[in-house]
Amino acid sequence: MSSKPIPSPRTVAARILARWLLTGDFPDRLIPENTPQRNLVQEMVFGAVRWCRTLEWLLTGMVSRDPDPETKAYLLTGLYQLFRMDNIPAHAALNETVEAAKADLDPARVRFVNGVLRNALRRREAMLSDLAKTAPGIRLSHPDLLIERWSRQYGETVTLALCEWNNRRPEVFVRLRGSDTPAHAALRELLTPHPVATDFFRVPAGTAVSELPGFESGAFYVQDPATQLAVSLLAPEPGMRVLDACAAPGGKAFACADRMQDKGVIIAADLHDDRLRRLRENAARIHLSCLQIVQADAAAPAGETVQAHAPFDRILLDVPCSNTGVLNRRPDARWRFAPERLEALTRLQFSMLDAAAPLLAADGILVYSTCSLEAEENLQLVERWLAATPAFRLDEQRTSLPPESGMDGAFAARIKRA
Fold it and tell me: How much is the average pLDDT of 172-187?
């Protein structure tokens, strides 16, 4: 009995894009872990999502109506390769995409995909010239709403630079942990330190983190330097009781444990099963005795496991947010941004502060953090909550704004009892 043929990376990418077009599901959760040539699939999926508005503008100039989602997904896959992936020869990208489409499309739609992509290849230079004259939202593939908001807040020059940063392929950083070992020495030889946060090292593009020296022994973990804003404000010390209320994937909890020399207790909580699974996988590699992983809702009254360790000396509340500070890593988040969603998020964030505050010790510190650039989720929300909760005060705040900071966008506020 013959085995089922393995679909090509372009077929896998187009299928994921088709589902994203239909459902709006998170693209990163749609890519199976064991996908062959995963890096190529991820590049085409994330790239097509990131540049979706630009690619749709190009497509509109070549078709009379919007194709069905399956056909459109193959067209986006092909156009992304032709216009944004210089490392793949154009004719090879075109031919491979048309061949891949035969797995899902009938002959008429395959011919349609072939015709559109060949037309795009012929007109490529003229189309790029026309694209350069379009509005920033089309040219830089961002919603007009975000560009307008950021222009009011930061000015046009900063906004355009921010959009360009968001369209860069995100860099991967690791933070070395523990005492110096041969693995650390090897990592310092292979990797380059971040220019500002020198404890963090940049992983070369195309390098699998799991293949780096010291991965299995927990010599490092993946973390962007912007996460240090919240952890440094939290300033946990050995022997403390710490609650990381929204802990997955675990980087901030691991950084706290290292600062605490693995002495004390860290309750690393999260609500969703898939995020908890990832947190447990990462924690198993790091080998920390002070870490306890629990399932808990940070917006609801604390469960028995969390309550048993209260009051906490430190609480880290890294809340769900709009992700506008990490749009290079979460390219789909730009297309989900809407005033209604922002309002719903701020209600959730406010309720999480309400739920966390009673768990804080009298002389404890609570750090509220986001990876958002939106004032409504950051300082405005903290000030609004403090106005309604006079028993607490703002002690310090820190912000990271790319590209000036050279790291992800982030906000952190240290809150103490008044």
Answer: 87
Same domain (yes/no): 276, 128: no
Task: Provide the annotated active-site residues.
Answer: 371
Answer yes or no: is 268 within a domain: yes
Q: d(Cα 17, Cα 20) in Å, to the nearest integer? A: 5
Q: H-type helices in 249-338, by residue range? A: 251-259, 273-286, 304-307, 333-336
Q: Are residues 114 and 235 in the same domain?
A: no
Residues 307-338 have pLDDT tens digits of 888 899 999 999 999 999 999 999 999 999 99
**Boundaries of domain holding 88:** 9-134
Tokens (6 digits) for 108:
């008429």
End-to-end alpha carbon distance in the chain: 73
Burial code of 339-358, b = ≥16 C-beta within 10 A, e = fewer? Answer: eeebeebbeebbbbbebbbe
User: Is the predicted pLDDT of residue 2 greater than 60, yes or no?
Assistant: no
Polymer length of the chain: 418
Q: Does residue 303 carry a pLDDT above 80?
A: no
128 with 231, same domain: the answer is no
Q: Which of 119, 134, 149 is the last residue of a domain?
A: 134
| Residue 200 DSSP SS3 | strand
